[in-house]
Design a protein that fits this description.
CATH topology of the largest domain: TATA-Binding Protein
Shape: globular
Number of strands: 7
Strand content: 5-15%
Radius of gyration: 18 Å
Strand order of the largest sheet: 1-5-4-3-2
Helix content: 40-55%
Mean pLDDT: 95
Structural class: alpha+beta
Low-confidence stretches: none
Number of domains: 2
Order of helices and strands: EHEEEEHHHHHEEHHHHHHH
CATH class of the largest domain: Alpha Beta
Length: 268
Amino acid sequence: MVTVNNGNFDIEQICQSGQCFRMVKCGDKYSLVAFGRYLELSQSGDDISIECTQEEFDTIWKSYFDMGTDYGNIIKSIDAQDNYLTQAADFGKGIRILRQDLWEMIISFIISQQNNIKRIRKCINFICEKYGEKRVSAGGAEYYDFPTPKALADASVDDLYACNLGYRSRYIHETALSVYRGDIDLEALPNMDYAAARSELLKLCGVGAKVADCICLFALHKTEAFPIDTHINKVLAAQYPSGFPFEKYSNYSGILQQYIFYYDLNKK
């Protein structure tokens, strides 16, 4: 087990922030499936206990949880005159932008369109159980890996529809075919800048501006990406009628977007 002390890390906030759909609360712990691995973690105050070896933490989870970024300094950089953003960052200060698997995020955020977090989780669990490889962790926990592009390309649209994916079934099938055929090179995307990566993602069936930005932010860690959906649009109209000050936070506006999203969704 590895224990990390961090004042800007809250498992519950990360779990409910709308970026990660395979992290669930299990009693006083949280379980997570990512990169074909199963992980359990818990928290007491600022101490986060991660049930893995030091080597696994150093090579996988340290980067996954973005432990190398000082989120406290980002929060301190917020304009003190911006009361809304200051409150939002304080409310969600435990959120971190996870470095997640690119393929999984492409499909997850296609599924997220006009959907809520609870239903997104259900849909993803459906396709993982039906098309993903079943595995067993070292501790005996059974879980399913995320389906490969080939597995989803081989599935018919009707089969995917049976997983409660609705109109997104065709998007997923076509996108899986595109990736499997090599129409888009996923391995090249991390080395592209934000604009180029976003442009490439927009070529995929069912990937619009908001979904592309979510993929850029939550998989490629392009923290200048600022996903805008109907919900965020309402917040921007109410709080920033003259426009959000992107010029002040150009390199990490996506982190601030998460604070805004989480705050507006949960403050009541």
